[in-house]
Amino acid sequence: MLTESEPPGLDAIPRERLPALLRTMPKAELHIHIEGSLEPELIFKLAARNGVALPYASVEALRAAYAFSDLQSFLDIYYAGAGVLRTEQDFFDLAWAYLERAAADNVVHAEIFFDPQTHTERGVPISTVILGLAHACRRAHAEWGLSAKLILCFLRHLSEDAALATLDAALPWHEHFIGVGLDSSERGHPPEKFASVFARARVLGLHAVAHAGEEGPPAYIESALDVLKVERIDHGVRCVESAELVARLARERMPLTVCPLSNIKLRVFDSLSEHSLPALLAAGLCATVNSDDPAYFGGYVNDNFVQTFAALPALGAREAYQLARNSFEASFAGVAEKARWIAALDAHFERQASSGG
Ligand code: ADE
Ligand code: ZN
What is the residue-wise DSSP string for 82-126? Predict the structure, then answer.
């Protein structure tokens, strides 16, 4: 049984102890694109292994190209980077590298996006993608008890027919993913373009999420809810432009998977100190903190937490607890697992509150 109360003594935890508290608290990560965790070092290693020529002379030169003006300028370089992924071993290595970083950040549960169309369009079989990623997820659970699940995303700049064909092609490996998502270029590609494929996924018993309200308007959040019937909104930060929508998201306790460093790198906000996360929490929304594409945006989930809290004085120990708790509540894990993680979270904060330093 989950209780609504928070552990006592949160106000007594001083600000200088926040970075350690944020790093050590158990958490779930719900918005991470596995292709966005492909570090430049691994791009070079896989390019050499697969005989792929890169248009950059060094890791440093590639990293220097990571200066983005908006979502599309990032996506162009992100899809190019994924071109080095060819074999099942490559997909295993990619996911394993992320899961090692996640475990180090005290992530106990991860729901990981992958973009099969980015690979099948290059001739990589969908089985290669799914089996490599799923192998790493299984091993992380066996070795560290880290629970890792996959969510298959459709690229919204492509057609709905292409999304339907992708879902069909993935069905023989159905047991390896828990849901479907919608990502890539948001503007001009509203959620309702994908009504049929999401309806089909729901009939198949898959969970549904969608990116909405990152660069797109609040109306895209509404159609993701009303037409696609998603269970979480990825990003969703532009909801603050509609008071009615904010009230609805709070009333329905609809989770938002917020990615602060991504929002700065893609110029959704000018700086972390202007981020709307405190307003979302104050409005009672089930917001969570995530890394999105950590290899491209300068940090994994703990970097997102620590840098965002450092920039925003309104965020303290109470908000840290709420965000971690929201991450478990918003996950697609079972009731018993959620209760176990929340009990561990409560115990962690109780120890911190009583230790005094
Ligand atoms: N694919 C990877 N990262 C993304 C983002 N932030 N928005 C939309 N599509 C993405
Ligand atoms: Zn994303």
Answer: GGG--SHHHHHHHHHHHHHHHHHTTEEEEEEEE-HHHHHTTT--H
